[in-house]
Structures are given as structure tokens and as C-alpha cells.
Amino acid sequence: MAGRTGAAPQTPDEPQKPGSVRRKGGALGREVAADLEEQIVQGRLSPGAKLDEVMLGNQYSVSRTPVREALRALAAKGLVEFQPRMGAIVARPTVGQVMDLFEVVAELEAIAARLAAERMDQADERLLVAAHQECQRAACAFDPDAYYRTNGDFHAAIHKAAHNAVLHEQIEHLNKRLSPYRRFITFRPGRTETALREHEAVFGALLSRNPAAAWQAMRTHVRVLAEDSLALSRSLRF
Question: Which end of the chain lies in a sparser environment, N or C, as judged by fewer CB atoms within 10 Å?
């Protein structure tokens, strides 16, 4: 059967530009939000950094509408805030707000440790042991970035072992908001050595299936101590 006269020849799709997204509507906003959230959590966008809609639209090859949707979604999570005459910025909480967040997450992490000591199965234990060993290796290698990552894996193994999806979700949400300040404390001189000793207390309590000891050890580990609070307060003065 003969083809239609004058039909336009089919050509392969043009390569997609870096950062561009072919999906439309809300999917565009969700994609932009996911990428910005990752940059904030990983510390590539610092607290107080301006999030200009035009620049972001150019960066992601999208209109301003998906950018606005993304910024509103991140504001709902506490990761972005809108300032008069400045527009959107990466959330920059006060010292008191950061302390409040640490206080709440310490209690939630302690509950997760207690539940993990009660509910942990063999698969959970293997994951916990592996994460603990990786943490120790990163500390011995004096690799702060690797230690920060493996420390997150250690805590994630405990959250998983708690077998409580709602608790896990709430801790994950708060930890995203606290990520820049956790990094600051983790990278303070001498903090890794102290954290390893605290990990040993948590790890030992979990392996011995001692819920009360696991709760107390984790609460002590996550709480911001006086010297950390002072250092944080100085770093948060803008």
C-alpha cells in the first residue's frame, strides 16, 4: 500500500536536555521538587539560599508554574520558606527551632530503638550488624562523608527493625529538615569518636534485646549536647 503523498518523514526524538522533563502538569512540579529536595538534604543548597523562579525554570527547562508548584510542595515539608521581598529561600530556622526539632527527633529515634529491640528479626539483625561495621570502617578511614552516609544507614536499619511505618515516615521527614545541622555536628572535631561510643551502646542494647537500654542509649545519642548547641547557635547567626 502506497504511503500518503507529502507526509512528513518521521524523525527520532530529539535528545532530552539535561534537567529537562517531558512530562506535563503536576508531574513536572514533582520532578523539580524531588531534585531540589535532594540538593537541600545533601547540603548542596544551604539554608538561606535564594530559590529564584526564573533561574530554576531555566535550569530545569520548564515554565515558572511547575517551579512554583515545587516550591510550595517543599514549603509544606518545611524545607523552603517564603520571605517578604526575597521570595523563596531554603528554610533557615532559628536556633530555638533547630533545638526543638532535635528534641522531637531524639524522642522518636529512641522509640524506634525500643521497638527494634522488641521486634527485630534475623534479617534486621544482619542489616544492623553490616551497617554498624560500615560505620566503624568509615570512621577508621577518617572519611567524614562516608561516615555521615553510613551513620544514616545505621539509623535506617534501626528504623526498619522497628516495623512501624508511621514512625519511620515521621523520623525521615524530620531528618530531612535537620540534615544541614546533623552534618554540621557530625563534622565537628572529635564528634565521630564520641558518636562511635554512643553507637556501641545502642548496638549492644539492640543485640541483647534490651528495649529500655536501647531507648536510653539512642535518646542520649541523638540529643544535641550543650557544646553542640553553642556551636550551632553561632553558626546560625546570620
Answer: N
- For residue 156, the enclosing domain spans 95-235
User: Which of residues 44, 66, 90 is at a domain's end?
Assistant: 90
Q: Where are the beta strands (DSSP E) in 65-218?
A: 80-83, 87-90
Same domain, 125 and 196: yes
Task: Specify the CATH number for the domain of residue 145.
Answer: 1.20.120.530
Q: Which pLDDT tens digits describe the chain residue by residue (238 residues)? A: 444 444 444 433 333 333 444 445 468 899 999 999 999 998 899 999 999 999 999 999 999 999 999 999 999 999 999 999 889 999 998 888 888 999 999 999 999 999 999 999 999 999 999 999 999 999 888 888 899 899 999 999 999 999 999 999 999 999 999 988 888 888 777 788 888 999 999 999 999 999 999 999 999 999 876 567 667 766 665 4
- How many domains is the chain partitioned into structurally? 2
Assigned domain for 139 exists: yes
Residue type at position 68 = R
- Residue type (1 letter), 177: R
- Distance from first CA to last CA of the chain, Å, rounded? 73
